[in-house]
Design brief:
Layout (H helix, E strand, L loop, with lengths): L1 H4 L10 H14 L25 H9 L7 E4 L11 E4 L1 H8 L1 H4 L9 H4 L1 E3 L5 E3 H18 L1
Antiparallel strand pairs: 1-2, 3-4
The structure holds zinc ion (ZN).
């Protein structure tokens, strides 16, 4: 019955791509779903193109079949399910995407740790490599001047 409703004619409803598509719709539309609060409940929607009579066909045309066991990931975690905001991603890629705060961890002077690198000092604190370099350079300059 579901197959006819969505115009599926090639047994696609048995594939994992179909299950992913169906799960996406359900998370956004049915409050009875356990994960609804993190999706539909906070305003995440599925674009019109991916819903209704040709929803799955359009989804398949835009995203292609699910590669291996990749998950459907939204690039902007606060954005909707649209062709522009969706990609197939590994679980770790998806995890990274969900913790942007960590990616932009910075030192007191605003160097982004992910860019400049960090080391752990004797006291166990995370220290900025860029600041350490600059301190070393300043010490050298001070030494030169005192000669
Ligand atoms: Zn720094």
């Amino acid at each position: 019955m579901m197959g006819n409703q969505y115009g599926i004619t090639h047994g696609m409803h048995k594939t994992s791509t179909y299950r992913i598509w169906h799960g996406m719709i359900a998370r956004c539309r049915y409050p009875s779903m356990q994960s609804y609060p993190r999706y539909g409940g906070r305003g995440i929607t599925v674009c019109d193109r991916w819903q209704g009579e040709n929803g799955f066909i359009n989804f398949l045309a835009d995203m292609g079949e699910r590669p291996g066991d990749l998950t459907l990931d939204r690039v902007d975690n606060d954005g909707n399910y649209t062709p522009e905001n969706c990609r197939w991603a590994t679980r770790s890629e998806q995890q990274r995407n969900k913790t942007p705060a960590k990616q932009h961890e910075v030192c007191k002077r605003g160097h982004i740790f992910a860019d400049v690198g960090v080391y752990v000092s004797k006291s166990g604190a995370r220290q900025c490599k860029q600041c350490a370099k600059e301190r070393a350079r300043a010490r050298e300059a001070a030494l030169r001047m005192s000669k």
